[in-house]
Specification:
Blueprint lengths: L3 H31 L6 E4 L7 E5 L5 E4 L3 H28 L3 H4 L4 H8 L3 H11 L2 H20 L5 H6 L8 H16 L2 H13 L3 H7 L36 H7 L8 E6 L10 E9 L7 E8 L5 E8 L9 E3 L3 E7 L5 E9 L2 E7 L2 E4 L1 E7 L7 E8 L2 E6 L2 E7 L20 H8 L7 E7 L4 E6 L23 E3 L5 E4 L10 H4 L8 H11 L7 H6 L7 H13 L2 H4 L3 H12 L10 H28 L5 H4 L3 H11 L12 H16 L11 H4 L8 H4 L4 H4 L20 E3 L2 E4 L8 E3 L17 H6 L3 E2 L7 E6 L1
Parallel strand pairs: 1-25, 3-6
Antiparallel strand pairs: 2-3, 2-25, 4-5, 4-20, 5-21, 5-22, 6-7, 7-8, 8-9, 9-17, 10-11, 10-16, 11-12, 13-14, 14-15, 15-16, 17-18, 18-19, 22-23, 23-24
Length: 786
């Protein structure tokens, strides 16, 4: 029956619902707008010595100008908080083991692993011992952070979505952000030690020397033109060799991780550049998300002697406000992870009559116990006890008790000596300062405006005696190795072995890269010749030539002879794509590159599968790849020399092993019904760069993620690129000529999705195009007055 009244009532209800929804959307929009950073205007800031201005260009890159360095510390804290507070909050929580307070029980395991190191307590002790001037420097930054948060019209959107409230910043938090980088840059050392320990127990000395080589033909150390000869292939392999590892094959063969991490940096001396200045380039490889790791800015101020200073480069929001990499106008510098040997797992005997008593290499001792409480959103607080020895906190693995003896636990592992680089006027000054800086140990490469270049290690190194079980204290900075103005007039580092001669033992090997990436950089720089320029030096950053993978392609082609492809159409297609789908690069349209890469990784599983399963029982990140990134060189040598005794028993000949690997790749890539021809490198290497909140609220991903671009590049070449790992910035410059410097990074300055600076510059990073290092003309200006 027709009822006009019911129809009118239904219409009114519908219009009311639409109105309520519209009001809710408007309220959400206004809330989000209210949490945007203030870009213009004037603010009073008690405690300033003089006025500070923050001028931003069209990329949102700020130029901070003031007469006093402490004032710039305050202003930096203010803009960091307004643009990046949630990122800062996550980093301090990673360092302290406090993520579960935001994300609940799913973060508890990570918190427990990090809380074991009690970095918040260590940070508090460092602050108590810090000189007054350094503490004031941090305190001004902290004041700026908290004022920046209070000045927002609403709390950052992430807290509304997680149903939490931001917590005020304090001085210890700034040190904890650096502690988070210790986990990021040195977190692989524990599983590496466990993996290598397992291999020691399951090989004889000859097998171990072959499987864990100290150097391969890919290495290009800074101090050696000739490398040692190859280690002989032992008569027999270990018992576990070539045994299957269960269902891990497809996971490993798909290689859903980047197998060469770290960073690239290099310098070309002024005697090889057209304008006479050194050229320094740096691209640091990290996990990629939004907002991006780094915050670009320029500082202009007067130093303690009244001398004008300009610092241009990158900061890590949350840390004490110092330029991490960049230039001071006289010296430019960059970092790569050193992979020095910085952590030992020291086996302890536990007294069966008293579990609180252990025997260390120095004798029996009673453990200290620390009650730790982890706050957990939506659940009861989790309480556990950290047991601590004189060598570090205890962990269990494989039924054994170990002390984690890590250089990061020493008080001097963190300091503000990075500030010395602000006033380093020569390369000699910079190298002397670098050896005293308290950060995770890095390769430091620098060049000055006179054309000099040099390398050393920055960050604390352990002091090791030859016969000692573990390190004992810190190496004196005066003893750090260094190289200045080598005959090649170039220096480069890419996480591989730096030295073969004197000084190598001071660094140790904490997980060096294979070296193929480093060799390609070294050779690429040599090819630039004696008359190069900044554009050409930057170009090495984008080198995606598949020099390393070319050998694996040739091995796969050789395996697919006429007998192998007869009546095997998928193998024949595999061969065709290796031949016709190869561009000589890790290009997005290359099927040949993806198939060759899969072939190498499938062999990894076939040969190391059983060992990897056993090692993973000790630590889920342990395996042959953790034990040695040089495993591809070992496998390549076996395939090329084909020793009969090393052929796994399951295969009649080496060709059948290679074909088994190829068949595994085919099975993995066609499992969903797609033809092999669709398996391009770009289809696998597709960017997945997003705000971490998008994982908790997938419906918002379209607003919180960058575009899903296919990316050229891969591990073992300069242009390292993965779906969410790769070049977190690219920077090339000559000190004193920063106006000519070039830059790009995968995200913008702001962490706010409504900000015009959220993704500004991302497209240039994808394309490898550059923008000027220095900010352009100001479009926004914010002033702070006392």
């Amino acid at each position: 029956m027709h009822n006009p009244g019911l129809k009118r009532w239904s219409l009114r209800v519908l219009l009311s619902c639409v109105g309520v929804l519209a009001l809710a959307l408007l309220a959400a929009w206004l809330f989000l707008r209210a949490s945007l950073a203030q870009l213009d205007g004037t603010r009073r800031a008690p405690g300033l010595f003089a006025t500070v201005s923050v001028a931003r260009d069209t990329y949102g890159v700020p130029l901070l100008q003031g007469s006093n360095r402490l004032d710039l510390s305050y202003a930096t804290g203010f803009i960091h908080a307004q643009d990046r507070f949630f990122q800062m909050d996550l980093l301090r929580r990673v360092g302290a083991g406090e993520l579960a307070e935001l994300f609940g029980e799913r973060a508890l395991a990570a918190d427990k692993a990090h809380r074991l190191h009690r970095f918040r307590a260590r940070a508090e002790r460092m602050l108590a011992a810090m000189p007054a001037a350094e503490r004031q420097f941090i305190d001004r930054y902290v004041a700026g952070v908290n004022d920046g948060m209070k000045a927002l019209g609403a709390r950052p959107f992430e807290y509304a979505l997680t149903g939490t409230a931001p917590r005020a910043w304090n001085a210890a938090d700034s040190l904890l952000v650096v502690c988070a980088m210790f986990f990021d840059l040195q977190g692989s050392q524990e599983p590496r030690k466990l993996a290598r320990g397992w291999i020691v127990e399951h090989t004889d000395p000859a097998q171990r020397a072959f499987l864990l080589p100290d150097v391969t033909e890919w290495d290009t150390p800074l101090d050696a033109a000739l490398l040692p000869g190859r280690t002989p292939i032992p008569p027999l392999p270990p018992r576990w060799w070539g045994q299957r590892g269960g269902s891990a094959l497809l996971r490993v063969a798909s290689a859903d991780f980047i197998d060469a991490v770290g960073s690239n940096n290099w310098a070309v001396a002024g005697s090889r550049s057209r304008d006479g200045g050194a050229i320094v380039s740096n691209d640091m490889h990290l996990g990629l998300q939004l907002p991006t790791t780094w915050y670009r800015l320029v500082l202009q101020f007067q130093d303690a002697d009244g001398k004008p200073r300009r610092m241009a480069g990158l900061m890590l929001p949350g840390t004490p406000p110092l330029i991490v990499v960049g230039s001071n106008g006289h010296v430019a510098w960059g970092y790569t992870n050193s992979y020095a040997d910085l952590l030992d797992l020291v086996a302890l005997d536990v007294d069966p009559a008293n579990p609180a008593r252990v025997r260390t290499p120095n004798g029996w001792e009673t453990l200290a116990s620390h009650d730790e409480t982890i706050l957990v959103k939506g659940a009861k607080a989790h309480r556990f006890v950290v047991r601590d020895s004189s060598l570090g906190p205890l962990r269990q693995a494989g039924g054994r008790t170990y002390a984690i003896h890590w250089i990061a636990h020493l008080p001097g592992a963190l300091n503000l000596n990075q500030r010395k680089l602000e006033t380093a006027d020569t390369l000699v000054d910079a190298l002397a300062a670098a050896a005293t800086i308290g950060i995770p140990a890095q390769n430091f490469i620098a060049g000055d405006d006179k054309g000099n270049i040099g390398w050393t290690i920055t960050g604390m190194l352990p002091r090791r005696a030859m016969a000692a079980v573990t390190w004992d204290g810190a190496l004196a900075p005066a003893n750090y190795p260094r190289i200045v103005n080598p005959a090649s007039r170039q220096l480069s580092s890419a996480n591989s072995r730096q030295l073969m001669g004197a000084g190598a033992q001071l660094i140790g090997d904490g997980g060096f890269d294979l070296g193929a990436r480093g060799r390609q950089i070294h050779d690429g720089l040599l090819a630039l010749g004696a008359d190069t320029d900044l554009k050409a030096v930057y170009g090495v950053t984008l080198d995606d030539r598949a020099i390393f993978m070319a050998g694996w392609r040739q091995r796969a082609i050789a395996a697919l002879d006429a007998a192998a492809v007869a009546a095997k159409p998928q193998r024949a297609e595999f061969l065709r794509l290796l031949q016709t789908g190869w561009r000589g690069r890790a290009s997005v349209d290359s099927t040949g590159y993806r198939l060759a890469r899969g072939f190498m990784w499938a062999l990894y599983d076939l040969l190391f599968g059983a060992a990897n399963v056993d090692m993973a029982a000790l630590d889920d990140k342990a395996g042959m790849n953790a034990a040695s990134a040089r495993w591809p060189a070992v496998v390549a040598r076996l395939l090329d020399e084909r020793p009969a005794s090393w052929l796994p028993a399951a295969y009649p000949n080496w060709r059948s092993l290679e074909l088994a690997a190829i068949d595994a790749v085919i099975a993995q890539l066609t499992a969903g019904g797609e033809p092999l021809a669709k398996a391009t490198w770009g289809a696998r290497n597709t960017a997945s760069i997003a705000h971490p909140i998008s994982r908790a609220v997938p419906a918002l991903r379209r607003f919180l993620a960058a575009s899903a671009d296919s990316l050229p590049g891969d591990a073992n070449m300069p242009r390292v690129a993965g779906p969410n790992f790769g070049q977190s910035e690219r920077m090339t410059l000559t000190p004193g000529k920063e106006e000519q410097g070039v830059f790009n990074m995968p995200g913008g300055q702001s962490g706010h999705p409504l900000s015009p600076f959220f993704l500004r510059g991302h497209a240039a990073w994808v394309a490898g195009e550059t923008v000027p290092l220095l900010p352009g003309p100001a479009v926004h200006t914010l002033r702070f007055e006392k």
